[in-house]
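Usage example:
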Amino acid sequence: MILTGPEIHRQVCEGNIEIAPFIYDHLNPNSYNYRLGPLVLTLDRQGKPEGSPHDLREQPLILQPHRTYLGHTAEMIGSRRFVTMLNGRSSVGRLGMYLNISADLGQLGPSHQWTLEITVVQPLRVYFQMRVGQATFWIPQGLIVEYMGEYAKRSDPTPSLDRGGPC
Amino acid sequence: MILTGPEIATEVGRGAITITPFLPSQINPNSYNFRLHDELIVYEEEILDPSVENMYTSILLSREGIVLESDRIYLGSTVEVIGSTQYVPIIRARSSTARLGLFVHVTADLIDLGAVGRLTLQMHAVQPVRVYPDMEIGQVTFWRTQGERVQYAGKYQASTGPVPSKSYLDWSSPSNPIARSRQ
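Running the assembly step on the lines above writes:
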């Protein structure tokens, strides 16, 4: 079962969902709009960061097709009670911007700023704090075991750690 | 919890789900196949910008269809008017469509409660692929909710065809669909 907007709000107030900062205006009927955080990493052909991250607070960035960028949510998001899924937002999908690469499923566990795997179909200018996607929260069934992996501790855009990537 | 095909049909009959027209032949065991409407939209700008209105052109599809090129976003819509006041719709490609490398949405699969209209599809082809009007291109699923329900009253309500991004409205007046629709 998916939580409605008012239920997301209630569970944030009760401490079962963390969304920080929480802005009431960003609630939808069954999701919460998250924003793009300040840092964007461009990946090279080996999946390694190309230089230091771009800071959107200084200026917007034009994303190019055929590249993978790692961004992050502006908000700390997480829940130990409800499964988080990160979706895009239709206003941004209509401009051809993917917010994840078929990896929309979060794990139960501590909150952090989530890494977004961004790719665009056509060149697109992106801005700090633009509302890019929607987080949904789902009721699980069964014993809850929390994710304690490395990614959950990271709030900066974090490249894949699968191949002994940067730490 | 996801609704089964027979339950989708029951809820359409009860009026809790809107799918118009509704054809029993398009029901699956746990989803409903939607078809591609005959109008597409493409942007004219070279660089898209979410903070402004991007210029676009409409294309009307003939029976021969059209080849979608990669490196271009095409906005289409469902033939069917789809929505629900009680169950959250989530759209997906049919696997037959995906096996051709065609995305029908760009990480925007989630529909708001109470949003009813011809759903805009964000079409992106990995390789060139031909699409035809009325082809069964994707499927919609319906999910049970927990908590008080409020209905969508946002900027894409009652769409009758593909609608380009209105993200620029975020820059002028922050929207709050919930505050406006709380009954």
